Amino acid sequence: MNLKIIKDKLHTLYKTYPKQMILTILFLFSVVFLLNNDFCYKTPIGKIVKVTTETSKTITNHNNGNFPISEKSYVQTLTVKLLNTSKKGSTITLKNTFTFSQMDSTKFARGDKVFLSLGSNDSLTSSNIQGIKRDSYTFILVAFFIYLILLLTGKRGFFVTITTILNIAVFVFSLHFYSEGMNILLVANILIFVFPCVTLLLSNGIKKSTFVALSSTFLTLTISLLLFKFALTYGEEIDYAALDYIVGGHDLEQIFFASVELAGLGVIMDVSVSLCSSLYELAKKTPDISRKEFFLSGRQIGYDIMGTMINVLLFTYVCGLMPLIILKMKNDISLITIIKLQIPFEICRFLFGSIQILLAIPISILLSSLFLLKRRNRK
């Protein structure tokens, strides 16, 4: 009886929300597949079914400058069951040593899936662990993201997903062209043209507010980049040698300029779309609005956007910079030195992005008042 009631409710739910039910079923099937995709790999994969941990000894790390660290070391006895290849079902016993901090070692737990390296002639006796298999959880998060965006936004979410995939593909191809010798500034200039076109046209559709937002984005980028180039040319010289992960010194200025070009692109598009879409609806709903009232309404919307977007930009740079600051301080580099050498680059990116946000607001309002109101009045 209970099964019949459940079946009837599911049938009613399917009749009421067919697309949502299909999406949910597809998501659940994808989760089951991703959790059991071991047969797709040629690399041996094992599941830890038993763990025994014992304290080994206390070791001292003397490579930490003036702050040597003493920590306990542990030895694990792991029973691992193979999940794929011709050795599927076999059980092996492995040893693993890790320290309390797990700085350069890993603590394994029962239920973990691990990649294995077998010995010569696929011998189980000389196998060892290469790392934890985490891809299933990563792809589940990706599937959950796609599921939520399709469930909540429908057709628009589909285009947002396609836009994200296309942007990632474009970015990967651009890095390939750079590795083949293409100038980094040329690559960045192509990207700041392609990203807005792909994102706005696919996400928002082909309509007047989209083209106004695109015009606002490109005009804001042009003006802000000219200002930035002027500041680099006539301002104090920047020591690019302080950039992280330097491999060669032939194009450091171009790399920095390219990173600044792309840094504020997202917030410019966000501000432009928010303002142009809001003003488009305002002009559509209130056909008798005056140009002054239209401009004042746009300015008020811009004020509401400005504070949050600038803080989002700040938090983004702070979060990205924090691990490097902590790592350098742990290696006996003083905070003052870090601020002198590293922080100026992030401050420059943050200030440039904030200026772009401030420029995008009046430019978006101006273009909206010129095109949206003008076309409406002609009708």
Helix and strand topology:
Blueprint: H1 2-16, H2 18-35, E1 45-61, E2 69-82, E3 91-99, E4 113-117, E5 128-132, H3 135-153, H4 155-179, H5 184-204, H6 208-234, H7 252-263, H8 265-285, H9 291-330, H10 335-341, H11 343-378
Antiparallel strand pairs: 1-2, 1-4, 2-3, 4-5
Task: List the keywords.
379 residues; alpha+beta; 2 domains; 11 helices
Architecture overview:
It is globular and about 80 Å long. It has helices spanning 2-16, 18-35, 135-153, 155-179, 184-204, 208-234, 252-263, 265-285, 291-330, 335-341, 343-378, and strands spanning 45-61, 69-82, 91-99, 113-117, 128-132. The chain is α+β, with helices and mostly antiparallel strands and 379 residues long. A 5-stranded antiparallel sheet has the order 3-2-1-4-5, with no helix packed on it. A hairpin with an 8-residue loop joins strand 2 (69-82) and strand 3 (91-99). It is built from 11 helices and 5 strands; from the N terminus they run ααβββββααααααααα. It starts with a helix and ends with a helix. The protein is 64% helix and 13% strand.
Determine the fraction of residues in helical runs and give it as a percent range.
55-70%
- Record the strand order, biggest sheet: 3-2-1-4-5
> Globular, elongated, flat, extended or rod-shaped: what is the shape?
globular
Element-by-element helix/strand order: HHEEEEEHHHHHHHHH
Measured between the Cα atoms of the first and last residue, the distance is 64 Å
Strand content: 5-15%
Number of domains: 2
> Describe the biggest sheet?
5 strands, antiparallel
Please tally the β strands and state the result: 5
**What is the average of the pLDDT values?**
80
Low-confidence stretches: none
Secondary structural class: alpha+beta
Please give the radius of gyration in angstroms. 28 Å
Our count of helices gives 11
